[in-house]
Amino acid sequence: MKGLMNYFPGNTILHRLDPRTKILFPLMICIVCFATDNVYVLLGILVLDLMIGLIGGIFRQALRLLKSLLKIAAFLFILQMLVVRDGEAVFHIFGLAITDEGLMTALTGALRLIDITLPLALMISLTQMSDLANALVSRWHIPYKYAFAVTSAIRFIPVFSSDMQTIMEAQTARGVEFDTKNFFRKVGLIVPLCVPLLISSVKKIETAAMAVELRGFNLRNKNSSYKQAQFRLPDLITLLIGVGLIVLGFVL
User: Fold this and answer.
1) What residues are paired with 93 via a beta bridge?
2) Looking at residue 232, what is its pLDDT?
3) What average pLDDT score do residues 218-243 get?
4) Contact 129, 155 (CB under 8 A)
5) Domain ranges for the chain
6) CA 80 to CA 70: how far, in whole Å?
7) What are the backbone dihedrals phi and psi of residue 222, each rounded to the nearest 5 degrees, phi first?
8) Comparing 27-41, 118-132, 161-175, 201-215, which segment has the lowest mean pLDDT?
9) Region 83-102 average pLDDT
């Protein structure tokens, strides 16, 4: 099954949005999440994130990412719940008082983590990196080498993830038990795998550098692309929704 950071082809309204809109809208959601402490607004953003996956035809992938984020969010929730000491005590765990302020801080922190991660990952999955690079160069006049560096970094995330999964499967075949429930033991098993991953990554980067040089990388400019991004009415509506969410975040 394809990873979430891979491009999922389609012809939905989200696929047809301007690549710049697909970057700006998640950034607007990030602003909303940091501007508000209202739990209901953060829950509404979470629903909006899932609607993005539904409209874009990648709802199953969105749920899979949400499931992964919930593990990190749960760890963050427990940590903040135990650390924050302000407010009135609600109950005690092993003699440690859990306050109402601590619970709210932990909940908003966990929701923020999910809300700011989901939309950007989903929008990237609906955007071809070549289209994004062309839009950044032709419309925002960003030098091509910087646009290429950004899109290449995004493009290589699923590649490295796939390589890591392959290495883990190879180690599992040799008897290494990665399915252990002991978190610290699992981390101890994964850390040594970073060395072969780093070696394979360097080889891929060198190959990619040779490929782009052969294709005239240094000759690219804003007029090199045959496909130009077009800002249309759906893009305007999407950005207006983002502005409305920012206002709502600051008001609430």
Assistant:
1) 96
2) 85
3) 77
4) yes
5) 19-134+230-251, 142-219
6) 15
7) -70, -15
8) 201-215
9) 74
Distance CA 146, CA 218 (A): 12
Q: Which amino acid is at 38?
A: N
Give one DSSP letter per residue of 64-120, joined into a string: HHHHHHHHHHHHHHHHHHHH---S-EEEEETTEEEEHHHHHHHHHHHHHHHHHHHHH
The amino acid that residue 19 corresponds to is P
Instruction: Tell me the pTM.
Output: 0.74
Residue 155: phi, psi to the nearest 5? Answer: -65, -30
Both tokens assigned to 183: 């978190």
Q: What is the pLDDT of residue 1?
A: 41
Give CA–CA dist 248/40, Å, rounded: 11
- CA distance linking residue 108 with residue 89, whole number of Å: 18
Name the residue among 62, 63, 96 with its Cα closest to residue 78. 96
Tokens of 63: 């749920």
